[in-house]
Amino acid sequence: MEFIFTQDQLDFQEAVKGFLAGECDVAHLRKMVEQGKTFSEDRWQQMAEMGLMGLILPEEVGGLGLTIRDYILIAEECGYAALPEPLLETAVVTAPLLAALGGQEEFLQEVCSGEAIIALKDSRSPVITNGDRAKAVLSYDGSAIRLDNTPALQASESIDPLRPVFLCEANGVTISEGENAVRLWQAALERSSLVAAAQLYGLGRRMVDMAVDYARDRQQFGKPIGSFQAVKHHLSSVMVALEFARPLIHRAAFSLADGDPLATVHVAQAKLKAGEAALQATESAHQVHGAMGYTYEVDLHLWMKRVWALNAAAGDLLFLEDQLENTVLDGDLPLGPGATFGAA
User: Fold this and answer.
1) Cβ proximity of 284 and 211 under 8 Å
2) Domains and CATH numbers, the chain
3) Is pLDDT above 50 for 342?
4) How many CA atoms lie within 13 A of 253 on its CB side?
């Protein structure tokens, strides 16, 4: 397996990066928080027009027929920008699940055009995101996947002001059951964990960049604090952690796209290490900024809160540690020199 992205994938990443830099910068985010908004209709529609909603959906419903491998770099950019809208939750998690289940072509066309949002009720979390915007909620009751157009929602407190969450009671109609439902639901959960991991990487990178910019400008003892070895070591350690996590994220994306039997393990490893690295970035960025880093006036808190929210979503760190520990103890995870990247 080669972990090399094509030029088309890199170009798509750059296009999304440029778009978000102009349409989802700090000024936009702060304005949304001040106005109590969590969703930009204009930005959502522009992303739909760019084809982001249907990138990995079948061509028959207006998609491009690509894979999560083509979306993982975009997910990193969504994290870097702290994008509020549920692009990844819809385009990568729920819409592909609906497409795999079949019989929902009209619904999926609405997703591609930006008219519909689909939420997922994940048993690993007590809340769902953006339930108030969702046209339907997908849930799994242990035996069947259900689609509910009228779920019962109750707003819940969110640590992230740009990521609204809701308690949800969803039933609806059964659209799949049996082994097929189990397989497709598990795949959706894995995609959810993976895009969370990619966002955590992007969030961590953004906070490092903020800390570096501040360390270049902040003067102490007549020189920038970034020239001090202690500050350099703090940020270097974070970058090591982030860049160690990134190959795990990419491997998990390739594993999911290629149907690797160890994809579940790879996804768990990716989210665990990305989550730990993002938390380390949060701590170090605040230390570099000093006490002012904890104030509302400094932008760090917007990224910090998203890190906390995503670490708790789609399998928190303790859940992932237990999952990997059980896999190792059960003997399902190959260990040793023959199971390294070099042997892939």
Assistant:
1) yes
2) 182-343 (1.20.140.10)
3) no
4) 27
